[in-house]
Amino acid sequence: MTPERIVALILCLAVLVASLRLLLWHRAAGAQASLLRLALLLLLQPLAAALLHTALFPPTTTAGTSSLRVATAGTSRLAAAAGGAPLILLPQAPAIGGGEAVPDLATALRRHPGVTSLTVLGNGLGPRDIDAARGLTVQYDPPPLSTGILHLAPPPTVAPGARFTVGAILTGLPTATVELIDPAGRVTDSAAPDRDGHVLLAGTARAAGAITFTLRVRQDRHIVEQADVPVRVEDSARPRLLILAGAPGAEVKYLRRWAIDAGYDVTTQMSAGGGVALGDAPVAITPASLRRFDAAIVDDRSWTGARGALLAAVRGGMGLVLRAGGPIDGATRSQWQALGFGLTGPAGVAPLALPKADAEPVARTRYGIGSTEAPIDIATPEDYLPEISRLAMTPGGSGAVPLLRDAGGATLAAWRALGRGRIALFTGIDSYALTLTGRRDLHGDWWSAMLDSVARPAAGIRVITNSGWTGERMTLCGLSSEGRVDGRVRILPVAGCGGYWPDRAGWHELNGKDGVRAFYIQPANALPVMRAARDRQAMALLPATAASRAATMLPDRTGAAWPWWLAWLAVSAFLWWLERSRTGRRAAADQSAR
After folding, report:
1. At residue 254, does pLDDT exceed 50?
2. Which residues, in sequence order, are CB contacts of 477 under 8 Å at separation 6+?
3. What is the DSSP letter of 385?
4. What φ, ψ does residue 437 adopt, rounded to 5°?
5. Where are the alpha helices (DSSP H) in 291-439?
6. Longest CA–CA separation in the chain, Å
7. DSSP code at position 185
8. Beta pairing, strands 87-89 & 100-101
């Protein structure tokens, strides 16, 4: 029981006893007591008690403004001159005269109870303040975005020596040039954005470790913006690859050579006819024996006899790449279509359009530093392009995902899921010719993309690609137990997620029972356009309906007690005077004397 109820109970008992006393007195006084005097005394008793209780426990009040203007990053310095609701300055807002500085939005709401609507100025509320705005009516008119990097997509974990791609979206820079610079300061790739601002750049990972590339945007020979691109290069167990071919050939030879250089544990098996097999030690093509492989590359001539075992292995998690050694027959086409690949187009082969080779400085940077034993072959833009064909049929289908396209836009490869594994279909023929004409970089790009998409994932450090910023809260999800960041900050997850406030830029590691997760923190002033776009998207996801949050949900203020004390004092004084005065008694006595 609360103190308010205890005092109320005591006052009720006091009023009851006082009223009983008055009734007994009136009964004893008889005709000498006035009924009007008795009624006043009985009425004033509970009134005085009620006023005393209200004076002791004044009612709360939600007096104050019902709306606030909240200044965030990018707010105009003339916002105070606009007038209207009180102006709140969050830490990221510029210094504006006449505003009230607060450490966060929740503090502003505690200082101003009763607020039901917010007018947000600038780029919008960040992760620290967005939750405090839920349940309120939020009015937000975002200003135009500045020019710069709108989105940056770094690669996930990369194996040593492997190629990776970095995606970016630019805004307001249609004629810019985007460069990817390696840790040594050399330009790895350079490209211009398309009409929508999208650009893809490629780089090569060297030794294992956590490194940082740089994405640089130039326009009119001036650097517009540059940002860190985190790349985590991890040594992992060598993926086990099985190559099945219906006959020996140059395609298998160069494919095996590339796979070994790329870090695969390769097993090759080729049929020479008459039951003779060439290559490594024979492998029984059964679901049990295929279970130890992470991926398999199978041509059309080996597919028919091993189809059942391969599909069973894919359903168990193995990746499979189907390739054509030449024009395929109707039976093979029907079998591949039964896997979900809608092969459209005529039979036969068609020319494959290749992209132009990179400029010589970029090509040398990609290949690395050569040696006398392993010289670097570079195809310059003036070199001729090899003649490579493809199946005239285009892989597609409702469940197929396009994976590779040639320079003319034709789909070269697509993949789809099957059970716990994936199947990819490659329509290129004799891709080995790329390695003979100085385009082994493109040959490696194609096969790396296909095997990375379908191969069974290896255990290792997982990279969280959504970077945060220094001094800003970020959310780490997918946690089943507590962990520690860099061995010093404890993360306690709630519903699988935990909050972390990074205090320095660079690589961080989250260690826990779920394994090791690496993530990169950008400096506080990096990627301002990308940060503003993220805040705007979060603001757009706030409910657009009117506020249902009542003022009682906020801490209320205790009202003033002195008016209630004055009222109680006046009623008590009148009650004291009435009980001791002869008013009512004389009237009854005079009437009795007559």
Report:
1. yes
2. 496, 497, 498
3. P
4. -125, 25
5. 300-315, 330-338, 360-367, 433-436
6. 148
7. S
8. parallel
Q: What is the pLDDT of residues 105-130, one digit of tens each?
A: 999 999 888 788 899 998 899 888 99
Which CATH superfamily is 148-234+460-532 part of? Immunoglobulins (2.60.40.10)
The partner residues of 219 in beta bridges, in order of sequence, read 222
Write down the domain spans for the chain: 3-59+562-593, 148-234+460-532, 240-454
Could you please state the CATH topology (level 3) that the domain comprising 240-454 is classified under.
Rossmann fold (3.40.50)
For residue 29, give the amino acid letter: A
- State the alpha helices, DSSP H only, in 73-114: 105-111
Nearest to 167 by CA among 190, 198, 143: 198
Residue for token digits 């199946």?
391
Would the pLDDT of 193 be above 90?
Answer: yes
Whose CA is closest to 535, among 108, 73, 99, 102?
73
* Residue in this structure with the two tokens 């991890």, named with its chain if needed: 234
The conformation of residue 399, written as its DSSP 8-state character, comes to T
* 190 within 8 A of 203, measured Cβ to Cβ: no
- CB atoms under 10 Å from CB of 194, counted, come to 12
> How far is residue 423's CA from residue 550's CA, in Å, rounded to a whole number?
55
Give the 3-state secondary structure of residue 534.
helix
Of 97, 102, 100, residue with least CA distance to 80: 97
